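Annex B.
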Amino acid sequence: MTAVLALTTSLMWGLADFGGGLLTRRMSALTVVVASQTLATVVLGALVLATGSWSEWGPQLWFAVAAGVVGPVAMLAFYRALAQGPMGVVSPLASLAVLVPVGAGLALGARPGWLQGAGLLIALTGVVLAGGPELRGEPVQRRTLALTLVAAFGFGAVLALIEHASTNLAGLFLALFVQRVCNVAIGGAALLAQARRDTPTLPQEGRPALLAALPALAFVGLADVAANGTYMVAAQTGPVMVAAVLASLYPLVTALAARGFLQERLRGVQAVGAGVALAGSILLGTAG
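EamA domain-containing protein: predicted structure tokens.
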């Protein structure tokens, strides 16, 4: 069950990244983040009210608050690193976020068996290769490298934090709602600052284009929420290290979506990464 939920997380995150990437071709990346998360917050707020999840309010929600603060910072660092490029270096380096929850699990006493450990190492190798690393080309600037590592640490911290944000289904809805409220607050403040610097925040076509994009923005936001939810459950029902590694295969999903919808070519190293990750996943499932 843990492997299935974690792979579902990868699917949802990968599709959300693909949709967000398409939208950022038409409007500011920060606008995409804030708008999509705002729509997701509205839906989650309705779920919280409908299910009476407010009764689950407790100190564990500080983990959701922390994830909601760290997440937008990591995302903005990631987008800026991608803008400075090269993407073939930034993407696989960012996928190293998985090392944070894996390291946290080891620090808290988790000790995988030899078969499970081998599966973890193989799957982690597949995660990095699936990002399509570029081993040749221009050297990466220090600023770009720093931004990428900040993003990787931030993404990994979010994975580690949301694991502890709830203990049941009602608490899951509330934790995700609190996380998204913080996302919108941080992202909204950054968007306001961007607008005050006269940086464009709307598509070139103006508000009508933004309104037309609302269904796509809602999909991106809700897919991200669904991914966070399935990851929480996966991390609570099985080894967190297994959940974290398998959930980090989302760059491959994004690449496959680009291949299917945009006819973008899947690089050889990504295909190899997919096979390696699949082998590691099978080994993890056998070991679990």
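The chain has one domain: 2-287. Residues 2-287 form one domain. Further annotation is deferred to the next reporting cycle.
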